[in-house]
Amino acid sequence: MKNDLLRVATLMKNSHSMIAFTGAGVSVESGIPPFRGPEGLWSKYDPQCLDLDFFHTHPLESWTAIKSIFYDFFGKAKFNEAHRVLADFEAKGLLKALVTQNIDNLHQMAGSKNVLEFHGNSQKLICPHCKTIYLPNEVNLDDLPPFCKNDGEVLKPDFVFFGEGIPEEAYRRSILAAQKADVVLIIGTTGEVMPAAMIPTEAKRAGAVIIEINTEPSNYTNNITEIFLQGKASEILLELEGLIHLKR
Ligand code: NAD
């Protein structure tokens, strides 16, 4: 493991266009569980609350679950050391872009700037009609569902629901970043959710070295990963930060 960490630190130091691709695992140490599995959110809530058709036909039922998951729970989570180290890598010019499948806003709270939100962001609400964006504290979430002040439409959290397309701009910029990347850090994702899962594959096809950090092997591990660093995201990233001498 020590040799692998040293190899990765050297690759990172010599890189010109490194990107990161993150998933739910990076936020597990912030207390946000993945969706699936015995401790996952879908063991407590019905995933149909995030189905687009169901949301339109049952706004109050959907919003009751959404408020509980994304505003009473996600909204109170704090970023962890993994988010913080990635933001520092960017601030030091080492990390050029961060493509995330997460919708919890924790990368941004930790200070990451060039975050490509492949699945949107739960900490913003959007009017599907006039596209006005609201922050959670700008709407009354004690009176559900929340409505747009301009046109009275039911507001929707600004992340991708089941049955909804990927935001075009984030999609386009993620593909471009993947095609330009010379090193990709995949962190805390099973690589099962399409089309997001193909971002590292696209980078590999264009010649990038794929490094993976995860507590368990994923779809990528025996496939496109060149160096697999097994462990918690925060612990591995802190070790890498130490090796690259990027400590503040
Ligand atoms: P996933 O739930 O399918 O997989 C999580 C991965 O993280 C697993 O491979 C697991 O081994 C790994 N992991 C768990 N703890 C870890 C840790 N401490 N350090 C490193 N790795 C760890 O997640 P996914 O692949 O991101 O796909 C799930 C989908 O659900 C995504 O589309 C995502 O948008 C969404 N989701 C988002 C959040 C969030 O915003 N925090 C939370 C749950 C799900």
From TrEMBL:
The keyword Cell division does not apply. InterPro entries: DHS-like_NAD/FAD-binding_dom (IPR029035), NAD-dep_sirtuin_deacylases (IPR050134), Sirtuin (IPR003000), Sirtuin_cat_small_dom_sf (IPR026591), Ssirtuin_cat_dom (IPR026590). CDD domains: SIR2-fam. PROSITE patterns: SIRTUIN. Residues 1-248 form the Deacetylase sirtuin-type domain. It is an enzyme of class 2 (transferase). Pfam families: SIR2. One of its GO terms (molecular function) is histone deacetylase activity, NAD-dependent. The keyword Transferase applies. Signal peptide: none annotated. Keywords: NAD, Transferase. Its EC number is 2.3.1.286. Coiled coil: none annotated. This is protein acetyllysine N-acetyltransferase. It comes from Labilibaculum filiforme.
